[in-house]
Specification:
The complex is a heterodimer of chains A (about 260) and B (about 300). Chain A contains eight helices and ten strands. Chain A has about 260 residues and is an alpha/beta fold. A six-stranded mixed beta sheet of chain A has the order 6-7-8-3-9-10, sandwiched between helices. A four-stranded antiparallel beta sheet of chain A has the order 2-1-4-5, covered by helices on one side. The two termini of chain A are about 25 Å apart. Classes of the chains: A alpha/beta (about 260), B mainly alpha (about 300). Chains A and B meet through β6 and α2 of A and α8, α9 and α11 of B.
Chain lengths: ~260, ~300
C-alpha cells in the first residue's frame, strides 16, 4: 500500500475507538480520480468542515463515507471496525434539491423513517421507537410542526427534519452536504446551535461548507481538500491563510490534460 | 331495488365482481408506487407491449391462459430491459427509448392480429371485457394478487425509503436496485392479471387514478397505498355494476368511475383541491395576529 506523503501521521494502525480513520482513499469517476490517496482522522464529538473549491471532491468524500460511491483504494475504519459500503451508523443528508418535497409525508413521518432501518421489515413500531422519535423532534425543535407536510416547511425547518431523522436513526456520524447553503442568518445560527448539540451528544458531524468566513464559529476542525488532501486538523492550527490559498489555487490532476479521459 | 342486483345471481357476474375486487385493489395499491416514482410513462409502455406478446402466445399456444400469460410477460420484459439498454448505451434518454420500443411493439401486435383469424378474442385484450372472465382467468388473478400484495406490504418500509430518496436509502443499506426490480415485475404481473378486465389501453387508468386521487387527499404514505387499493376496488365494482345496468363496455366504465373520483378530489380536496384553494382567504389573519400579539402589552 502506498503511504500518503501529505499526511504521514494517518497510519491505519493508530486508529482507536471513537475515531473515524480514512486512509489512502482514492475514488474515480470514469477513470478520472476525484479524490487521490486521502487520509485523515477525526473523532466523535467533533464538528468537522470539509472545505475546498468546486470539484474538489467534497461531495464525493461524503458519498464515499456514506457507502454510495465505490472506493478504488484505501480503507475507512470507524470504532475500530472496517466500514464497507452502507452502514446504519452513518447518516447521510443529501443536498436539498435531491428530495421530492411533494412526497406524502409529514415531519414526523420523516423522523420515523430513521427508525425503519433499526426495525427491519416486520417488527412493530414500539415504545422505544416512539420515544426516540419524540426525543429527536424535541431536540431539533420540531414538535410544534410535527404534522406539517414537508413542502410546507421553510428551508431551515427542512434541514432540521433531516437532522432529526439522523438522530432517530441513532447514527454516530452525520454526513451533511452543504447544510448552510441558502439559509438566512437567523436560520444559520439556529442550525449552528443544533450541530453543536449533536457534537455535545458525542456525534461526529462532517459537513461540506463553502463560506470560509463562518468556519471558525461553527466548526472545531477542518479538512481542506482539492482532489488531494491539503491539510486536516483543528481550526486554530490548520485553518490559516497559507493553507487556504494553497487549497484554492492548486490545479489538480484531472486526467484531461494528460489525454487519459474517455 | 331488486333490478339493481338481479344480475348478480348470474355466475359470470359473480366471477366478474370477484375479479374487480382483486384487480381493483392490486392496481390501486401498486399505483402509489407508480405515481410517486413518476413511472406513469413506463407503466403505459409496459401495458402496450403486452399486446404483441399476447398475439405471439396465441399463435404458439392457442387460447390457453398460461401461453398468453407467458407471451405477455416475455414481451413486457423485452421492452423494459431493451429500453434500459438503449438508454445506457447511447445519448437517448429512457423515456424516449421506451416510447420508441413500446409503439413498435404495439404495432407488431396489431400487424400480427390483422393476420391471424382469432381476431375477436384479441380485441378483448385491447379494450377488456370483464364479463368474459373465466374460471382459469380468475385463478391467474387470485395467484397474482396473492403474490403481489403480501410482497409489497412486506417491503413497505424499504420501498418507502427508496421512493423518498434512493441515494439516502442506498447509503442506509437498502437494496435499491433489487427493490426496483421487484416493483417492475409486480407491475407487469398485475397488468397481466388486469388485461381481461380493462384491456391493454385502459390499464393505465386503473393503475394510476386511484393513487393519484389519494395523492390529492392525504399526506401519508400508508394511507396512499391502502386508500388507493380501497378506491380502486370500489371504483372497479361500481364501474362493473354501471356497465351492467346501462349495458356499456365494462373496462371503459371502470376507468370513467375512477376518473370521476379523481375529478372530485381535484376539485374538492380540502388541502390540495382547486376550489378550496380559490375560495380560501389569502391571508391567515388569525395566525399572523397570534404571531404578533398586539394586545398583550
Amino acid at each position: 500500500m502506498e503511504t500518503n506523503l501529505a499526511n504521514p501521521s494517518a497510519a491505519p494502525a493508530a486508529c482507536s475507538s471513537h475515531e473515524l480513520c480514512v486512509s489512502d482513499l482514492t475514488v474515480s469517476y470514469h477513470r478520472v480520480p476525484a479524490l487521490h490517496h486521502v487520509s485523515f482522522q477525526v473523532a466523535c464529538g467533533q464538528c468537522v468542515a470539509l472545505l475546498g473549491p468546486n470539484g474538489a471532491g467534497k461531495s464525493t468524500l461524503l458519498k464515499t463515507l456514506a457507502g454510495l460511491v465505490r472506493m478504488e483504494t484505501g480503507s475507512i475504519r470507524f470504532h475500530g471496525h472496517e466500514v464497507k459500503g452502507a452502514t446504519k451508523d452513518f447518516a447521510y443528508l443529501p443536498q436539498r434539491e435531491q428530495i421530492d418535497w411533494d412526497f406524502p409525508t409529514t415531519v414526523r413521518g420523516i423522523v420515523e423513517m430513521g427508525r425503519y432501518l433499526r426495525l427491519g421489515w416486520w417488527r412493530r413500531f414500539g415504545g422505544e421507537d416512539f420515544d426516540a422519535v419524540e426525543e429527536a423532534l424535541k431536540a431539533m425543535e420540531l414538535k410544534p410542526i410535527e404534522h406539517r407536510q414537508i413542502n410546507a416547511l421553510s428551508g431551515g425547518q427542512q434541514q432540521r427534519a433531516f437532522l432529526a431523522r439522523a438522530l432517530a436513526q441513532q447514527a454516530h456520524v452525520v454526513l451533511f452536504d452543504e447544510p448552510f447553503t441558502g439559509l438566512d442568518k437567523p436560520t444559520q445560527d439556529n442550525l449552528k446551535r443544533l450541530l453543536k448539540t449533536l457534537r455535545d451528544q458525542g456525534k461526529l458531524v462532517i459537513a461540506s461548507h463553502h463560506d470560509l468566513a463562518t468556519v471558525p464559529e461553527i466548526f472545531d476542525r477542518v479538512i481542506l481538500l482539492n482532489g488531494e488532501l491539503m491539510a486536516a486538523g483543528p481550526v486554530s492550527e490548520v485553518f490559516h491563510e497559507a493553507n487556504i490559498s494553497k487549497t484554492y489555487s492548486t490545479r489538480v490532476f484531472s486526467g484531461l490534460d494528460h489525454g487519459l479521459a474517455v | 331495488m331488486d333490478w339493481l342486483f338481479k344480475s348478480l345471481q348470474h355466475d359470470f357476474m359473480q366471477r366478474s365482481l370477484v375479479a374487480c375486487v382483486l384487480i381493483g385493489f392490486t392496481n390501486g395499491f401498486l399505483g402509489a408506487f407508480v405515481v410517486l416514482r413518476r413511472l406513469a410513462l413506463m407503466a403505459d409502455s409496459l401495458s402496450h407491449s403486452l399486446l404483441p406478446g399476447l398475439a405471439v402466445g396465441l399463435i404458439l399456444f392457442g387460447l390457453a391462459p398460461a401461453g398468453l400469460f407467458f407471451g405477455a410477460l416475455v414481451a413486457a420484459l423485452i421492452v423494459a430491459l431493451g429500453a434500459q439498454l438503449l438508454a445506457k448505451g447511447s445519448r437517448i434518454k429512457e423515456d424516449t427509448a421506451l416510447g420508441i420500443l413500446y409503439t413498435v411493439a404495439f404495432s407488431v401486435g396489431i400487424v400480427i392480429i390483422s393476420k391471424v383469424k382469432v381476431r375477436v378474442s384479441l380485441l378483448h385484450y385491447l379494450f377488456g371485457n370483464i364479463l368474459g372472465v373465466s374460471n382459469s382467468d380468475l385463478w391467474v388473478i387470485y395467484g397474482i394478487s396473492l403474490v403481489i400484495i403480501p410482497l409489497l406490504v412486506g417491503l413497505q418500509r424499504p420501498l418507502m425509503l427508496t421512493l423518498f430518496d434512493p441515494s439516502v436509502a442506498k447509503s442506509q443499506g437498502v437494496r435499491v436496485t433489487a427493490l426496483n426490480l421487484v416493483l417492475m415485475i409486480s407491475l407487469v404481473l398485475s397488468m397481466i392479471a388486469s388485461l381481461q378486465a380493462v384491456g391493454v389501453i385502459l390499464l393505465l387508468g386503473l393503475l394510476i387514478s386511484p393513487a393519484a386521487t389519494m395523492y390529492l387527499l392525504c399526506d401519508s404514505y400508508p394511507m396512499m397505498l391502502w386508500g388507493g387499493g380501497l378506491l380502486g376496488m370500489i371504483g372497479s365494482c361500481l364501474g362493473l355494476l354501471l356497465s351492467d345496468w346501462f349495458n356499456l363496455p365494462s373496462g371503459a366504465c371502470i376507468v370513467l368511475v375512477l376518473g370521476f373520483f379523481f375529478c372530485l378530489a381535484y376539485l374538492f380536496s380540502p388541502r390540495y383541491g382547486l376550489l378550496p384553494k380559490l375560495t380560501k382567504r389569502r391571508h391567515f389573519h388569525d395566525q399572523s395576529l397570534a404571531r404578533w400579539p398586539h394586545d398583550e402589552a
